[in-house]
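Task: sequence design from structure.
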């Protein structure tokens, strides 16, 4: 039916099971491809970028827990609703190594604070 989430989203929301290791493995593989693509568009380790990030949350209480943690621990702009957390970093320089460290932290932060699943990041190329 129109307006209903796909079955896989409903299944995740029902059983709330996912592996941080699996998410991390997938995100690190994507980091490698994304960093190469950013470099192809002229981004270097000196380029200032603002990273947008996204999480899926099992419920509003979980989203609020993660949002509160991110606000307390970072200088990120953070938003949440009943099923997601999103936001952005300040402008920063990045490298493949920095991205990998940051993604590890973000995946674990979501897992440990509300069991929210890190769903990725993006950046606009200047």
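Answer:
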């Amino acid at each position: 039916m129109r307006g209903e989430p796909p079955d896989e989203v409903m299944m995740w929301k029902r059983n709330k099971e996912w592996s941080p290791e699996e998410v991390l493995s997938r995100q690190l593989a994507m980091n490698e491809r994304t960093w190469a693509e950013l470099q192809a568009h002229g981004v270097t380790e000196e380029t200032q970028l603002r990273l947008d990030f996204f999480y899926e949350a099992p419920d509003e209480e979980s989203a609020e827990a993660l949002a509160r943690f991110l606000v307390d621990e970072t200088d990120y702009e953070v938003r949440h609703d009943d099923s997601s957390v999103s936001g952005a970093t300040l402008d920063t320089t990045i490298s493949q190594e920095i991205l990998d460290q940051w993604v590890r932290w973000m995946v674990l932060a979501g897992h440990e604070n509300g069991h929210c699943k890190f769903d990725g990041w993006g950046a606009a190329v200047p």
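Residues 10-15 have pLDDT under 50 and may be disordered.
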